[in-house]
Amino acid sequence: MILRTQKFVSAFLIALVAFGGFEALVYIVNLNEPIVFLKTAFVIYVYLALKISLLYDLHFKNPGALKRATAKHESVSHWFLKSMAILLSAFSDRISHLLKKHHWLQFQNYLILPGMLFWSTIILLYVDFGNSRLQQVIVLLSGAAMVVNYWYLKEAFLRKTEKVDRDIFAGLAAVKIYVSAITFAAALAIMRRFCLDSSFFVAAIFSITFLLVYQALFQHKLLNIKNTFSALLIGATEAIAAYFVYRYWALNVYTAGVAMAALYNLMWGTFHYHLDKALTKRVFFETLLICALIAMMVFSVTNFKARLLDGCIF
């Protein structure tokens, strides 16, 4: 089977699990079965994480472990000792790539985006239970984003490059824009659902923003103390904005998520162009204009006076 066919088959299997799993979760949560909903979501996530883990392992392993182990212990005379030595040596050689610090960090990095995508979707499906039309839109968009993310992860693993190529980064960046919006929206939705203090939302937004920037820096091989500090600064700026969003934004958490994603994209886009030494006044003002345009569209459809009379006091 050629590699392209393998990619299509793998993507099809992920699509079945993503769309089918989300649809099953919609059905369960609309039956008002939160415990079953969470257990099922956990099982689906474990499958998707194992799928990515297996994909990473198969592409980064060092093939021929058994052959090397057999040659290494050829001189052992006793058949039992020889067999055990070969098996242990082959197993150690087979998993050696997973024991390297860089490979382990790289693997963890590739789990950040699909993890945020999946659990943000789960939160929104839970918060909006009963609203079947909105749930179906979330299922469609999140399922598609999951497939696209998996497709580009497989491509990155096939090329085995520590620094992702521009086409892969562009594809994952498109997924990240969607993920940032629904993650910010999901964080706001779950905080308001349980009437938590604004400090929890601020901490959540700081962590989410830092992880998004950290992942991009790692994939660009630009992770150092200076850039990490810049990532913390971007996270802190987004967290300050989150405080005011939590206190003054209206009921629509989706418009809030889009607005916060626009601010994140402005800061990360500017920082990214700076790292690429391509930041000019024209580029900055184009990025700022896009952010302002999105903000204007969001503000124009948001009723800031809308509040739940019997809900939490923000």
Note the gap between the termini: 57 Å
The radius of gyration is 23 Å
How many separate domains make up the residues?
Answer: 2
Helix count, per DSSP? Answer: 11
Give the integer mean of the pLDDT values: 83
* Strand residue percentage: under 5%
The count of DSSP E runs of length 2 or more, i.e. the number of strands, is 0
Uncertain spans: none
Elements, N to C (H/E): HHHHHHHHHHH
Main sheet characteristics:
none
Shape: globular
Structural class: mainly alpha
Helix coverage percent:
over 70%
Draw up the topology in text.
Elements: H1 3-30, H2 34-60, H3 65-72, H4 79-94, H5 101-127, H6 132-159, H7 166-193, H8 198-219, H9 225-248, H10 253-275, H11 281-300
Helix pairs in contact: 1-2, 1-5, 1-6, 2-5, 2-6, 3-4, 5-6, 5-7, 5-8, 6-7, 7-8, 7-10, 8-9, 9-10, 10-11
List descriptors.
314 residues; mainly alpha; 2 domains; 80% helix; globular
Description:
It is built from eleven helices and no strands. With 314 residues, it is mainly alpha-helical. The model has no long low-confidence stretch (mean pLDDT 83). The chain folds into two domains: 1-140, no CATH class; 161-314, no CATH class. It has helices spanning 3-30, 34-60, 65-72, 79-94, 101-127, 132-159, 166-193, 198-219, 225-248, 253-275, 281-300.
